[in-house]
Write a structure and sequence with these properties.
Strand order of the largest sheet: 7-6-8-9-10-14-15
CATH architecture of the largest domain: 3-Layer(aba) Sandwich
Structural class: alpha/beta
Largest sheet: 7 strands, mixed
Strand content: 15-25%
Distance between the termini: 58 Å
Radius of gyration: 22 Å
CATH superfamily of the largest domain: Response regulator
């Protein structure tokens, strides 16, 4: 055979017969998440959770014999930046799937982009109910708990621990902040709580003292907040400095106080209660193994973002293996109704709105200086917490 023939035969083997080259190509997952700015601590947990799960999957042979590759872009918790970075991942990097968005506005914007590109995305962080209710998309999935699920667990605890509480609300002034406040207010009022007022602060606020006069005037017994990341650090430390934490119970959304920002908050986080889909204190064999692996890899405990991001890879792997493909239509069908194992336990992806069903917990933080704990003080079964399917777009 001539040299030319040999080269031609090799090319046919690689590109033609049996699709050997395409089968060997990695499965690419784009990750658009905040790696800088106020929500960088959340993005860090997202990254760690995805990387740990991907490392384990690849070590076990990958997905359908293909390795998984993660491609990261910094969304800066900004919807305009997120769509720009997602477009690059879809069009230039040709990712098979996309995840990572934290800002709920980013998830909604990137979801529209995914529809135009004929690709699927999943959020492991965003709380806004709109993502899987009135603004749902056939190309968007959510593996984490939405605001309504969190609120169900927290409102049940509040009704038992502080019946008919007077509640004041302080949230960040964007989609997630307003959605979480609305969801908890509705759930709390159904159980007898009284709303005394609300205020919304710009994302990245440096000075929360300007709102303290309104808070004092409302005379609440409970403050609900859905700030996150460094915003929570500033809010709670400033409230402590102004003496507002005395005789006031602080409750809030899942991401308000986490393993990533609790060190900077310190004693001001003690007693904070949240409705959440995960705690590192869950005493199951699966969670204990996950926490041990996470601590070994990153020298810190996972929070809900790390756990849900870790679980996403299991969801994606199970769906691709069920579909036998990463193509959008068969993959979407495989994801709908899928049950899979996570550190929190078994989750099921509801087919009608692409919202994961999972057990929810009320968690109280013990910040005692000798080690922070996220103690489970209440549980609501997944079917009771999720509420009705309100998606009508598909």
């Amino acid at each position: 055979m001539t040299k030319t023939t040999l080269l031609g035969t090799a090319a046919l083997v690689l590109l033609g017969f049996g699709g050997i080259a395409s089968a060997a190509d990695p499965i690419r997952i784009g990750v658009v998440t905040p790696l800088s700015g106020t929500y960088a601590p959340i993005g860090q947990q997202v990254r760690w959770g995805l990387e740990l799960a991907t490392k384990e999957v690849n070590a076990a042979g990958g997905i359908l014999g293909r390795q998984v590759e993660l491609l990261f872009e910094d969304e800066e918790a900004n919807p305009a930046v997120a769509t720009q970075k997602a477009e690059k991942l879809f069009q230039v990097n040709k990712v098979d799937f996309l995840t990572g968005t934290v800002n709920s506005g980013s998830t909604l914007a990137v979801g529209q982009l995914a529809e135009r590109n004929g690709r699927l995305i999943a959020t492991t962080v965003s709380f806004s109910d709109a993502i899987t209710t009135d603004k749902c998309s056939p190309n968007v999935f959510r593996v984490n708990a939405r605001a309504g699920q969190q609120s169900a667990a927290l409102a049940e605890w509040l009704a038992k621990d502080k019946p008919k509480a007077k509640v004041y609300y302080l949230g960040p002034d964007y989609e997630m902040g307003r959605s979480t406040v609305a969801a908890f207010k509705q759930a709390a009022e159904k159980t007898g709580a009284q709303s005394t007022g609300e205020v919304f602060a710009p994302l990245g606020s440096k000075d929360y003292s300007q709102y303290f006069g309104q808070l004092r005037a409302a005379r609440p017994s409970v403050l609900y907040t859905s700030t996150a990341g460094n915003d929570t650090v500033r809010l709670l430390t400033q409230m402590s400095e102004y003496g507002l934490l005395r005789n006031l119970t602080i409750v809030g959304a899942s991401g308000t106080v986490t393993a990533q920002n609790i060190g900077a908050i310190g004693k001001a986080a003690d007693g904070f209660v949240t409705g959440v889909g995960y705690s590192a204190e869950l005493a199951t064999p699966e969670n204990k193994a996950f926490v041990a692996a996470f601590r070994k890899a990153y020298d810190t405990a996972p929070d809900l973002y790390g756990a849900d991001s870790y679980g996403l890879i299991g969801f994606f792997k199970a769906a691709v293996e069920k579909a036998g493909s990463t193509d959008t239509d068969p993959l979407r069908k495989a994801m709908e109704g899928l049950s899979w194992s996570t550190p929190q336990g078994t989750k099921t992806m509801r087919a009608g709105d692409h919202q994961a069903i999972q057990d929810m917990y009320a968690v109280r933080i013990a910040a005692d200086g000798g080690g922070n704990r996220f103690d489970v003080v209440g549980t609501v079964p997944g079917d009771a917490a999720i509420g009705p399917d309100q998606c009508t777009r598909f």
